[in-house]
Amino acid sequence: MTLERNHDTAPRSVLISPSMLASDFSRMGEEARRMQTAGADWLHLDVMDGHFVPNITFGAPIIKALRPHCDLLFDVHLMISEPLKHLGDFLAAGADQITLHAETLTRAQLMDAIVQVRSAGKRVGLALKPGTPLRPIVNYLHELDMILIMTVEPGFGGQAFMTDMLDKIKQLRREIRRQTLDVDIQVDGGITSETIPLAYQAGANSFVAGSAIFNAADAAQAIAELRSACSFFEKKEPKKL
Ligand code: DX5
Ligand code: ZN
User: Rounded to two decimals, what is the model's pTM?
Assistant: First the structure.
């Protein structure tokens, strides 16, 4: 997969990652396929353990069962207290990118996770809950493929986007540029065609959306609308004479 990179001047490519949390769990294979046909870039898989977050969803066996149904990049968001215990299982199940929560890791554990995921040739991301500060992670940016800025408290779909996270996204984009790195910024929670341009303008380029895609009558149209909402700001550039 080619990811266009983020430069100050060039428009960033928009990566839409539908969250299977909002899918019909009785037909997950079909739902994953439907997202691929609808034009998604990645497939977001929310793993919850009932401990780090209140809900329990699914684990590696379900991801393994989904793998033959869909060729999209499997974007696995681990909302679990002891991610290192299970990393091997998720890699074996077919995860292409694994995002761990900063709140669940010591510095040594983060390094261990990065080595494990990278040795398997996969991408590694670090997620921050809304209340988790950015500062401690700026030293690790060069080791990571993606930072996930949560725009809701993790654990539930269908919540409202927290606009006070926009500053955090801006600061992070600024820091990535300052270090001249190539790191994706993902946002997750409350993404709709109203909120996506705000996150895009702040510097995000990967967007998780559950309700906005799965609750729509036409998923392809919902994905296209999310994409075109990001170009809103580019279209506003004054026309040359
Ligand atoms: C929340 C999950 C999200 C969730 C987003 O903890 O990480 O991926 O599915 O759902 P919406 O898009 O409905 O806010
Ligand atoms: Zn998620």
Answer: 0.93
- 11-58 confidence digits (pLDDT tens): 569 999 999 999 999 999 999 999 999 999 999 999 999 999 999 999
Ligand nearest to the CA of 155: 1
Ligand 2 center to 80 CA (angstroms): 12
Quote the crossing angle between the two packed helices 219-230 and 28-37, to the nearest 10°: 50
Quote the CA–CA distance of 10 and 232 in Å, as a whole number. 15
Per-residue pLDDT, 171:
98
For residue 189 and ligand 1, the question of a CB distance below 6 A is answered with yes
- The span from the CA of 94 to the CA of 79, in Å, is 18
Closest CA to 104 of 168, 149, 31, 53: 53
Cβ of residue 101 lying under 6 Å from some atom of ligand 1: no
In tens, the pLDDT along 131-176 reads: 999 999 999 999 999 999 999 999 999 999 999 999 999 999 999 9
Please tell me what DSSP assigns to residue 203: T
What's the CA angle centered on 43, arms 155 and 67, to 5 degrees? 110
C-alpha 36/C-alpha 131 separation (Å) is 33
Tokens 């900063």 correspond to what residue? 102
Instruction: State in Å: Cα 234 to ligand 2 middle.
Output: 27
